[in-house]
Amino acid sequence: MTNIFDGHNDALLRLWRQNQQHNQHPNQQDGDISGQSFITGDSPAQLDLPKARQGQMVGGFFAMFTPAPNKVIKDKAQNSNRQMAGDILNLDPVDHHDALHATNAMFDIADHLAAHYPGHMRICRTAHDIRTAISNQQMAMVMHIEGAEAIAPDLSNLDAFYDRGLRSIGPVWSRPNDFAYGVPFEYPSSPDIGGGLTDAGRALITACNQKHIMIDLSHMNEAGFWDIAALSTAPLVATHSNAHSICPASRNLTNRQLDAIAESGGLVGVNFAIGFLRPDGQKNPDMPVEVIIRHLDHLLTHLGENGVALGSDFDGAEMANDLNTAANLPVLVAAMRQAGYGDALITRICHQNWIDMIETVIG
Question: What pTM was estimated for this model as a whole?
Answer without folding.
Answer: 0.94
